[in-house]
Design a protein that fits this description.
Layout (H helix, E strand, L loop, with lengths): L1 E4 L6 H4 L1 E4 L9 E11 L1 H8 L15 E9 L11 E4 L14 E5 L3 E3 L6 H6 L2 H11 L12 E5 L4 H12 L3 E6 L2 H10 L3 E4 L5 H8 L5 E4 L2 H10 L6 E4 L11 H7 L2 E4 L7 H16 L8 E5 L3 H9 L5 E5 L1
Parallel strand pairs: 8-9, 8-11, 9-10, 11-12, 12-13, 14-15
Antiparallel strand pairs: 1-2, 3-4, 3-6, 3-15, 4-5, 5-7
Helix pairs in contact: 4-5, 4-10
Pfam families: ADH_N, ADH_zinc_N
Keywords: NADP
Protein name: NADPH:quinone reductase
């Protein structure tokens, strides 16, 4: 099969290549998926550069997320899964066979059924962004049902996680406020279903949001240091600020203000989420996709041979989703 590979970390143009490699066979508990689309996330290029880990032991086919069709199963997996359309998440976590290839082999639980009428683009967009969004909304909570009638603040509503946080929260019956940095991004957030969209670069952000709601029950936060004053202005007893991304400098945490407000901060990194909580987030994502509540992001498509350009586009902050088509 053809696959994008790197054997050491570094800049995309220096370490990524497309090669013919042996097609893997699924082992016990695994499925093999013929990949029709491979979604690229920031975590993929950060891992490839070495920011989040070491060089691969042998080789690494990158990308955690993807979509495709199960074409073979290993021992202990229902043979009826052959031919099933699936979306993948965390495919390259502890596994050299990520989704930037014609085939990927993963544990069967990491290949989630995709509804028959859902487009491939949706399947390639889910994975890390949607499951992260689901976990941010569920962490320290009482389940998705508890979001009904509550108010959710989503920072960066045009980003991949922000997009799915809006759609999942609306699917659960919450009111959603989101912040963006441009009118182009505001249109994306409105299309996702946000009730109020505010450009954080304009004056009076807090006042505009407070005209809509006096507090947020849940904050899905992409930049804690930059947004902490806004988050605190909208926090109250029971507010949870779920932070899923880091910044170059660690923010100073105002413990007393958080204590007085009875507000908590929860940090979310999908790779370390407890198994039962991860299953809950995946299940909610799958249910919402099946109900037609989730939509693909705007897609920029590259061929497998364009892997370097695709990675560089994501590094440079491409809006929407970059998808590699093997």
């Amino acid at each position: 099969m053809k696959a994008a590979i790197y054997r050491r970390t570094g800049p995309a143009a220096d370490v990524l290549s497309v090669e013919d490699v042996e097609t893997p066979e699924p082992g016990p508990g695994q499925v093999r998926v013929r990949i029709t689309g491979s979604g690229i996330n920031p975590t993929d290029w950060k891992t490839r550069t070495g920011l989040t880990g070491q060089d691969p032991a042998t080789f690494q086919i990158p990308h955690q997320d993807g979509v495709g069709v199960v074409d073979a199963v290993g021992e202990g997996v229902d043979a009826g899964r052959v031919g099933e359309r699936v979306w993948l998440y965390l495919a390259a976590f502890g596994n050299p066979y990520g989704t930037a290839a014609e085939y990927s082999v993963v544990h069967a639980d990491l290949a989630v059924p995709l509804p028959g009428d859902a487009p491939d683009d949706l399947g390639a967009c889910l994975g890390v962004p949607a499951v992260t969004a689901a976990h941010c909304l569920l962490v320290r909570g009482e389940g998705r049902e508890a979001l009904r009638g509550r108010t959710v603040l989503v920072a960066g509503g045009a980003g991949a996680v922000g997009h799915y946080a809006i759609e999942l929260a609306k699917h659960a019956g919450a009111r959603v406020v989101t912040t963006v940095s441009s009118e182009e991004k505001a249109e994306l957030a409105r299309a996702a279903g946000a009730d109020l969209v505010v450009n954080y670069r304009e004056p009076g952000v807090v006042e505009r949001i407070q005209e809509f709601t006096d507090r947020a029950d849940r904050v899905v936060e992409v930049a804690l240091g930059a947004n902490l004053e806004l988050d605190l202005a909208l926090s109250g007893a029971g507010t949870v600020i779920a932070v899923y991304a880091n910044e170059p400098d660690d923010p100073v945490i105002p413990t007393r203000r958080l204590m007085v407000a009875n507000t908590s901060i929860s940090y979310v990194l999908l790779y370390g989420v407890p198994a039962d909580e991860l299953r809950a987030a995946v299940a909610w994502t799958g249910d919402a996709a099946g109900a037609g509540a989730l939509s693909p992001l705007p897609v920029t498509r590259y061929g497998l041979d364009e892997i370097v350009a695709a990675h560089e586009a994501v590094e440079q902050g491409a809006i929407g989703k970059v998808i590699l088509t093997p």
